[in-house]
Amino acid sequence: MIPKGVKIEEAKGKLGVLLPGLGAVGTTVVAGVELVRGGFSKPIGSLTQMGTIRLGKRTDNNVPMIKDFVPLAKLEDLVFGGWDIYNDDVYASAMNAGVLTRDDLGKIREKLQAVKPMKAVFDTRYVKNLDGPNKKTGKNKMDLAEQLMKDMADFKKANGLSRLVVVWCGSTETYLEKSPVWDTPETFEKGLKENHESISSSMIYAYAAIKSGFPYANGAPHMCTDIPALLALAKQAKIPISGKDFKTGQTLMKTLLAPGFKARMLGVRGWFSTNILGNRDGLVLDEPLSFRSKEVTKLSSLEYIFQPEKHPDLYGQLYHKVRINYYPPAGDNKEAWDNIDLFGWLGYPMQVKVDFLCRDSILAAPVALDLALFMDLAQRAGMHGIQEWLSFYYKSPMVAEGLYPEHDLFIQLMKLKNTLRYLKGEDLITHLGLEYYD
Fold first, then answer.
1. Distance between CA atoms of residues 279 and 310, nearest Å
2. ω before 244 within 30° of 0 (cis)?
3. According to the 3-state scheme, what is the secondary structure of 395-433?
4. CB neighbours of residue 133 within 10 Å
């Protein structure tokens, strides 16, 4: 018998949110929370701050705000910090990123200037098109991991924090092939001491967070916590982890449209996707191996939603292509085009064309915030290992071995909300109506 409700520790005290990467996304998270805390704006796009959850029957009309239903950390209790390869404080970095207006940033200038980046663990072997002066040095990768652990401990102590979470907001690293060094915590730690080339910078951050007892969320598409060594370490240490790759622009549209086509049993012959973007992310993805990491996550969603092996007549011949083009004038205002060739009754062809002029960091910032708050909730609820209920936020959701990832946004949302209901001992919502049998 599954118990109703879970004991959740109260969200007492301050919650530290450490962001590896204080570029466009990271600074938009910090600045956005400061603008909301200051009463200058609303947290649009944040499920934790704006979302509701139905409890019981529809006729009960019991629909509280999520933030009132589960004990989440309050925005006023968040303390931000992070690492970056550039020395700029968050105000200067946000100005350089050009996501938010000078007027908005000016309202909170002093608060942003107070957040200065710690020296980053960074290696150009894994991010080839970037480099900066604010980097750690050490005798080996284990030494770098220990420096990060000290950063986390010092940040927690200096700010009087009761808890801390780490959310990767840095650049996409190059695609890495599976390596034996990833097999176990022991092989991984040996690899850290031997500077193994298959251990990337993000893996060092993840290792440091898990060893320090802090939840870790991977907002980029590269391999990180989804390697056996770190999965095992998180399970041993009872630390929640989640990933990977924030679901923002084009893939968000795919996970909205594709479930609709499949629900109506409409066939799809081709789906061509291309993007232009000009921020730091675009520069990084202009390098082929970094793009390969992104391509893998962007291609995976349609395959799992359509399940062509089960619906060969509808999706067995699907041609899916993804392109990303670096175009500096676009800045953070990414444009994503999709051409979809579909067919309906008797095989007659149709087309859908989508032109999504989106703001990458504006879409990513509330995702990063929600993940920080939900990962902290998971820790306080005694949940550990892969947090699949947070798949809603990721392009390539991590799942337990032997399972396939769920990409349908609406199923993901149902899973997330049912997890919250379960934690609080409420009945799960199945949308099964039994009124016909009354």
1. 40
2. yes
3. CCCCCCCCCCCCCCHHHHHHHHHHHHHHHCCCCCCCCCC
4. 8
Q: What are φ and ψ of residue 266, in 5° steps?
A: -90, 135
- List phi, psi (to 5°) of 341: -100, 110
Which amino acid does the sequence have at 432? L
| The residue type at 215 | P
Q: Are 152 and 212 within 8 A, CB to CB? A: yes
The ranges assigned to domains in the chain are 14-246+362-423, 251-357
Mean pLDDT value of segment 60-68:
96
Q: Under a CB-based contact definition with an 8 Å cutoff, are residues 293 and 200 in contact?
A: no
Is the backbone of residue 2 left (phi > 0), alpha (psi -120 to 50) or beta? beta
Place of tokens 């095992």: 232
Looking at residues 235-248, what average pLDDT do you find?
A: 96
The DSSP element (H or E) to which 90 belongs, if any, is helix 90-97
pLDDT at 192: 98
β pairing state of 319-326 and 161-168? unpaired
Question: In the block, which residue shows the tokens 């071995």?
Answer: 401
Of 171, 287, 283, 255, the C-alpha closest to 221 is: 171
- Measuring CA to CA, which residue among 146, 144, 126 is closest to residue 135? 144
The pLDDT confidence band at residue 285, using thresholds 50, 70 and 90, is low
Q: What is the pLDDT at residue 130?
A: 86
Q: In a 3-state reduction of DSSP, which class is residue 365?
A: helix
Structural element, H or E, at residue 185: helix 185-193
The DSSP string of 287-328 is SHHHHHHHHHHHHHHHHHHH-TTT-HHHHTT-EEEEEEEE-G
Of how many residues is the chain composed? Answer: 438
Q: What is the rounded CA–CA span in Å between residue 259 and residue 246?
A: 19
> CATH top-level class for 251-357?
alpha beta
Query: Which residues neighbour 215 within 8 Å (Cβ) at sequence distance 6 or greater?
Result: 165, 166, 209, 239, 240, 241, 242, 375, 376, 378, 379
- In the Cβ-directed half-sphere of 216, how many Cα atoms lie within 13 Å? 30
Mean residue pLDDT across the chain:
93
**Please, what CATH class does the domain formed by 14-246+362-423 belong to?**
alpha beta
The stretch 400-429 carries a mean pLDDT of 94
- 141: amino acid identity, one letter: K
To which residue do tokens 């290696």 refer? 123
What pTM, to 2 d.p., does this model score?
0.93
pLDDT of residue 294: 62
**Helix and strand element counts for the chain (H, E):** 16, 11
